[in-house]
């Protein structure tokens, strides 16, 4: 059995929940979402090889954007893919292991969100129905003006942070410290009270060297800007050293030339009548 689901949508009134469902060598449209029935198909011949099954979706719309999951029951094999239609609001965040990263999520207005629920989740992780004390997919949960660590994935609890000043002005950007290869994936920011949702994809490159990431959030008093900067990599320190050395060299040369031209002027000043 091969099933494709879209993680951002719930089953329709007829309890159809699949983007695509293949079972007993046939496509089961009875259980598929109507909007996809006429537009999706399994790539011909792929099921007879060891190559990945490929599902084709025709005439995509803006509403199709989101994260899709493929699940093969007999092999317990699961994969996810993020579909972007048109211009992506947030570009993928690229980091190296050990970096601190910023996952952006902001309202268009500066609405105070302190009394709203804010949930960050990782779409590749599923909630565990048997786990009554928490939710595996919840990276960060803010509710009733506090962080609800009881419902968060333990691996993220000591590493995630929401800027309280940004929260007052419609900014629920999330900071993750010391990212690992396992953190790579698609993250969803959801504010249920406003039905506001954004997604951002994090790429963790083991060989990558990333520039410092800077995010600013306005200070309520208007006199200060809070800046989050990611952990710098060794190569960046080397580049910074070379850059500063170049500046100092340029200043030194400028001073020398300035002194050289000032000496003839002093001699002219000492000549009578000049």
| Euclidean distance between termini CA atoms | 99 Å
**C-alpha-based Rg, rounded:** 27 Å
Tell me the name of the CATH class of the largest domain. Answer: Mainly Beta
Total helices: the number is 3
The CATH superfamily label of the largest domain reads Immunoglobulins
Query: Strand arrangement, largest sheet?
Result: 8-16-15-10-11-12
Broad structural category: alpha+beta
What is the name of the CATH topology of the largest domain?
Immunoglobulin-like
Q: How many domain modules?
A: 2
Low-confidence stretches: 46-51, 127-134, 210-240
Can you count the beta strands? Answer: 18
Helix share, percent: 10-25%
Percent range for β-strand residues? 25-35%
**Major beta sheet, specifics?**
6 strands, mixed
Q: Helices and strands, in N-to-C order?
A: EEEHEEEEEEEEEEHEEEEEH
Overall mean confidence score, pLDDT? 75
- Supply the CATH architecture of the largest domain: Sandwich
Description:
- This protein has helices spanning 34-37, 164-167, 234-269; strands at residues 2-6, 20-23, 26-27, 40-42, 55-57, 66-72, 77-83, 93-95, 101-103, 118-122, 138-143, 146-147, 160-162, 174-176, 185-191, 196-204, 214-218, 225-229.
- Mean pLDDT is 75; it is low at 46-51, 127-134 and 210-240.
- The strands form five sheets. Strands 8-16-15-10-11-12 form a six-stranded mixed β-sheet, with no helix packed on it. A five-stranded antiparallel β-sheet has the order 3-2-1-6-7, with no helix packed on it.
- The chain contains three helices and 18 strands.
- The chain has two domains: 2-83, no CATH class; 93-229, Immunoglobulin-like.
- With 274 residues, it is an alpha+beta fold.
């Amino acid at each position: 059995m091969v099933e494709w689901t879209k993680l951002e949508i719930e089953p329709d009134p007829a309890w159809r929940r699949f983007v695509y469902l293949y079972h007993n060598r046939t496509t089961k449209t009875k259980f598929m979402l109507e909007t996809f029935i006429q537009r999706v198909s399994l790539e011909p011949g792929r099921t007879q090889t060891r190559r990945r099954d490929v599902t084709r979706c025709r005439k995509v719309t803006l509403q199709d954007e989101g994260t899709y999951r493929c699940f093969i029951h007999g092999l317990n094999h699961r994969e996810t893919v993020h579909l972007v239609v048109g211009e992506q609001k947030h570009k993928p965040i690229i980091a190296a292991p050990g970096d601190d990263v910023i996952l952006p999520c902001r309202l268009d207005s500066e609405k105070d969100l302190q009394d709203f629920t804010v949930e960050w989740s990782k779409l590749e992780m599923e909630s565990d129905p048997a786990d009554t004390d928490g939710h595996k997919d919840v990276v960060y949960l803010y509710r009733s003006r506090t962080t609800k660590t009881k419902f968060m994935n333990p691996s993220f609890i000591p590493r995630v942070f929401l800027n309280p000043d940004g929260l007052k002005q419609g900014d629920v950007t999330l900071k993750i410290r010391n990212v690992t290869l396992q953190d790579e994936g698609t993250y969803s920011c959801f504010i249920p009270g406003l039905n506001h949702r954004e997604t951002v994809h994090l790429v963790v490159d083991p060989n990558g060297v990333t520039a410092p990431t800077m995010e600013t959030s306005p200070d309520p008093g208007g006199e200060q800007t809070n800046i989050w900067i990611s952990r710098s990599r060794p190569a960046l320190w080397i580049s910074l050293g070379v850059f500063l050395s170049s500046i100092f060299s340029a200043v030194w040369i400028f001073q020398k030339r300035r002194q050289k031209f000032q000496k003839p002027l002093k001699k002219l000043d000492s000549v009578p009548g000049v």
